[in-house]
What we know:
- The protein is of the alpha/beta class and 255 residues long.
- 32% of the residues lie in helices and 19% in strands.
Amino acid sequence: MPLNVDLHTHSFFSGDGVSSPEENIAAAREKGLHAIAITDHNTCECASYLLDKGLMRGDGQPVDGFLVIPGVEVTTAEGHLLCIGTSLPNPRQLKGKPARDICELIHEHGGLAIPPHPYDLFRAGIRNVTLDTLPIDALEVFNAATTLRRYNRFAFAYAQLRGLPMTASSDAHHADAVGTAYTIVDTDDFSVSGILTQVCKSNKLNEEYLTPRDSMRKTWNNWLRLRRRKRPASVDRVADGAPAAGAKNSNSSAK
């Protein structure tokens, strides 16, 4: 049974994601997808959120005919690395750790290690000097949001040379982009474990790039994320409802 799976998406739990997990799921269903992996940057909060909402099951089975696969995109010392099929403990503390160590941690927790957008010089893709040393399970050879299309071609050639399974993903940061590209896995086991097993084999890829409008939205979201990072701590405290240094106390608190 062919299943359409987008293995690389982001929700508002990512610093540069704008859509809710519910919106991403609704968009995926509308586009004919059977499953998505929500791989927010350095956080697994979305999995806990969806479990509480009843939109995801702890046993890896689908809910109402749709499957959400847990995951996270870790910012390693050498670039971004997808963990697919499981959550990782304290993912924010994994930032800056060696990619090889993260691969081993992913495998210890039963997930797949898949580098996204490798070769992309503008998006923290892991380069082949490091890729050669990593025990990865597959390679994302088509990223719908890649900066330059030749980076996808480089990834495809590397996967061929090394004999790696290949995936295609949207890297969606808003609901409209979910399912732009996806991996078609052929399995009768419609579960997280069934899909993980098939991803490690040969699969068909649906390859379509983001529209110029969607690409601009993603660039804008990234710019806003960088702007937020540069704000002084006092500004963040005020935004969170805490008084800035030197501010007078008030009977009413900021919302």
